[in-house]
């Protein structure tokens, strides 16, 4: 791994961690439920991206599979929450 790639990946991990902290703050403080849903979406996307960067750093396929699972569960969860906020029920 080249030194430029090494430092770029470390910087990406640090900035993703900061973005996750900002999203966590919005999740806890958000004035409306829609703000909280968007913060949750941002959290799972940043978590997925962090797993992808870790997969590049450690050159392991396990991180890529975990990132795919995070994306899948995050999408299903945010769709269920959005449907609940719109209609008041998830299963009709």
Automatic annotation (TrEMBL):
Transmembrane regions: 6-29, 41-60, 66-86
Keyword annotations from UniProtKB, A to Z: Antiport, Cell membrane, Ion transport, Membrane, Transmembrane, Transmembrane helix, Transport
Topological category with respect to the lipid bilayer: Multi-pass membrane protein
InterPro entries for this protein: MrpF/PhaF-like
Subcellular localization: Cell membrane
Pfam family, one: MrpF_PhaF
PANTHER family per the UniProt record, alphabetical: NA(+)/H(+) ANTIPORTER SUBUNIT F1, NA(+)_H(+) ANTIPORTER SUBUNIT F
Protein family membership: Belongs to the CPA3 antiporters (TC 2.A.63) subunit F family.
Protein name (record): K+/H+ antiporter subunit F
Organism: Variovorax ginsengisoli
């Amino acid at each position: 791994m080249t030194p430029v790639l090494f430092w770029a990946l470390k910087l990406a991990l640090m900035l993703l961690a900061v973005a996750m902290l900002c999203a966590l703050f919005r999740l806890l403080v958000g004035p409306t439920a829609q703000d909280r849903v968007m913060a949750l979406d941002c959290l799972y996307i940043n978590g997925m991206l962090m797993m992808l960067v870790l997969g590049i750093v450690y050159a392991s396929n396990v991180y890529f599979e975990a990132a795919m699972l995070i994306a899948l569960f995050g999408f299903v969860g945010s769709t269920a929450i959005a449907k609940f906020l719109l209609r008041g029920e998830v299963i009709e």
